[in-house]
From TrEMBL:
It comes from the Bacteria. PANTHER family: PEROXIDE STRESS-ACTIVATED HISTIDINE KINASE MAK3, SENSOR HISTIDINE KINASE. The keyword Phosphoprotein applies. This is histidine kinase. GO terms for biological process: regulation of DNA-templated transcription. Keywords: ATP-binding, Kinase, Nucleotide-binding, Phosphoprotein, Transferase, Two-component regulatory system. Its EC number is 2.7.13.3. Coiled coil: none annotated. The lineage of its organism: Bacteria, Pseudomonadati, Pseudomonadota, Alphaproteobacteria, Rhodospirillales. It is an enzyme of class 2 (transferase). The keyword Nucleotide-binding applies.
Length: 503
């Protein structure tokens, strides 16, 4: 038995006391006794009983039915009426307050026990049901999917907020309307009308057909062309396994498609930026590599002019200088071609290259710079093969960049000695070139950073030399590294495979 806290409302004090005794015997607690409707409403509010036993005729203005109505509206406390008469009019008025039971006076204790138990039990299950309904309502209100419930005749029973937004109907307007009028689905492309999905479910008796994509037309038709939705529908089945309605759930695909579209655009933009970056790096590389031959051409052209301004110009000497200009101009052209090949990630003009000879040639190219910076050069070059398979111009650019960096590092500092040492040699299938300087070294500079394009610590540097050099080495299947020198300075070393393809 459920023990309950009960309020007795009865104007006959003797009857009230009698009921109180009976309730106590049953194990219930009487939390108050009122003789008037007004007092009953007050006590129900302050005591919050589990149940009110309510006489209909009371002292004062307010009768029991009115008091019951107020208590139910304000507190949802279950009411059981106690009454000596049950004429139709009274019963009708009382029934409007949704009482949980009637006890006709005079009544016996067992009768009262049963009515009270049933009232408490019904109240408990009503509360549970209301809670569960609220839970569903809150869930349906908070989800973004549209939900429409229809009855077995295909008429709308309920729709949630998302469904209201997407269909343009309010739940109140849609209630009782055919689902096919509220949710007008057409083929996404052809705009042919589609059969109402819930009708399919109810006719076929299937629990749920596969989901489909459709276009949901706006209320009243016309523009805009509606939204594309994904629909799912399930039958609602009763205890006898009969469909009693359907639930249609649909989702707006517009946003998902917009995100996918934005992603595609972003990817295209990124590819474009990638190309632009490459173009920028290409331009920087051309500027970087062509600078050296251009400077040489300017210097030699100046020398030429000096010769020619003599009263008796020495034409043989002048010819030698002009030949140098031609050679440098050709080299500039070769360099541009090799950089373009580098950007395409292919060796421009592969062949067998004698790296040691190439180092010697390169030192020849920068003789003027070496002299100006007062750098002593030491070499230890392996004269015999193996040779390396690769692009001569690119490999020369590589050595030139490393040598120029070494010269620049040493000219910046006030150094006791300026020594450039280049060693070449082969072992284990690799050809090794080591360029060592006695400059300030890399200190605590991040070694990875110096290889990045546009990283420079020089006021007029482009920061391209090492990034181009690393690309060249990698394109030839080798590796370029930087380490501190044994006695200060820095060591740039690269290895290249001696057989084609870097195997
Ligand atoms: N031999 C070296 N000794 C010390 N630091 C070096 C040496 N070589 C390169 N670095 C450092 O690495 C940086 C990047 O070199 P990188 O050749 O890529 O560009 P840069 O020489 O600054 O400019 P440029 O594009 O004109 O060659 C240099 O600015 C310098 O700080
Ligand atoms: Mg450089």
């Amino acid at each position: 038995m459920i023990a309950a806290r009960i309020l007795i409302v009865e104007d006959d004090r003797i009857v009230a006391r009698d009921i109180q005794h009976q309730l106590s015997r049953m194990g219930h607690v009487v939390v108050g006794m009122s003789a008037s409707g007004e007092d009953a409403v007050r006590q129900a509010c302050s005591q919050q009983p589990d149940l009110v036993l309510m006489d209909i005729r009371l002292e004062g203005e307010m009768d029991g039915i009115e008091a019951a109505r107020r208590i139910r509206d304000a507190h949802r406390i279950p009411i059981v009426f106690l009454t000596a008469y049950a004429n139709d009019e009274v019963v009708h008025r009382a029934s409007l307050t949704e009482p949980f039971g009637y006890l006709l006076k005079p009544f016996e204790e067992p009768q009262m026990r049963t009515v009270i138990q049933m009232a408490l039990y019904k109240h408990a299950s009503d509360t549970k049901l209301r809670l569960s309904e609220r839970r569903y309502a809150a869930t349906l209100a908070s989800i973004r999917d549209g939900v429409i419930l229809s009855n077995r005749d295909g008429l709308v029973d309920f729709m949630n907020r998302a469904a209201e937004t997407m269909t343009g109907w309010t739940a109140a307007e849609a209630a009782g309307q055919p689902l096919s009028a509220v949710f007008v689905a057409v083929d996404e492309e052809t705009l042919e009308p589609l059969e109402d999905f819930s009708a399919v479910v109810l006719r076929s008796g299937d629990f749920a057909p596969p989901e489909r994509q459709s276009r949901l037309l706006p209320r009243g038709g016309g523009e805009p062309a509606g939204i594309v939705v994904e629909e799912r529908c399930s039958a609602i089945i009763d205890d006898r396994n009969e469909p009693v309605g359907s639930i249609l759930v649909f989702r707006d695909l517009t946003q998902r498609r917009r995100i996918a579209e934005a992603l595609r655009t972003a990817q295209a933009d990124l590819a474009h930026i990638g190309r632009l970056t490459m173009m920028g790096e290409l331009a920087a590389a051309v500027a970087h590599e062509v600078n050296q031959p251009l400077m040489a051409i300017v210097t030699n052209a100046g020398t030429c002019l000096q010769h020619l301004s003599q009263p008796q110009p020495d034409l043989d000497k002048t010819r030698v200088v002009v030949e140098r200009i031609v050679r440098d101009a050709q080299r500039a052209g070769d360099v541009v071609r090799s950089i373009r090949a580098l950007a395409r990630r292919t060796p421009a003009d592969p062949g067998w290259v004698d790296i040691s000879a190439l180092v010697a040639d390169t030192l020849e190219l920068v003789r003027a710079e070496l002299r100006r910076a007062r750098v002593t050069v030491e070499t230890d070059l392996q004269a015999e093969p193996p040779w390396v398979h690769g692009d001569r111009v690119q490999l020369q650019q590589l050595v030139l960049n490393l040598v120029m960096n070494a010269i620049e590092a040493m000219s910046a500092e006030d150094l006791p000695e300026r020594r450039l040492r280049i060693v070449t040699g082969s072992a284990d299938g690799w050809f090794r070139v080591r360029v060592e300087d006695s400059g300030p070294g890399l200190g605590d500079t991040d070694v990875d950073a110096i290889f990045r394009a546009l990283y420079t610590t020089k006021p007029d540097g482009l920061g391209m030399g090492l990034s181009i050099s690393r690309s060249i080495v990698e394109l030839h299947g080798g590796r370029l590294t930087a380490t501190p020198g044994a006695s200060g300075g820095s060591v740039f070393e690269f290895v290249l495979p001696v057989s084609p393809g870097g195997k």
